[in-house]
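Structure Section — protein described below
Tokens — whole-number codes for backbone shape
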Amino acid sequence: MTKQLLKGFWAVSFVAVFAALSVPVEAAEVAARIPFSFTVNGKTLPQGSYHVSTNGGTLFIRGFKTGAFALTNGVESRDRSAAQLVFHKYGDQYVLRQVWMGAGSGRELPQPRVERSLAKGAQDGRVATGFERVVIPLL
């Protein structure tokens, strides 16, 4: 009787461990059509269609010929925001700052050097104004 209970316990434990390991932490992948070139983690990507996914604290953006990745911080929203990309626009330059995967779950990119220099240019008067927030819905 004890051997049967022990075998049953091991079988249940084995199944539970493999079930937990097979589920990724964040398996979301979404698509977006971005109508302008933009900067991610210091790399400028051209306008086009992109697949956006996250894995832990890493954000991946893949296009047809190019892509980029960035380390991000998790952010939550109480208003259950829709799936969207949030850019900061300085003049004609766009910098990706947030990715919302839906259900109030998002990732925020740290402010890159290029945005710090653009913000400084806005303060110095070299760029017309500060940034404008531009939101692109995800497909």
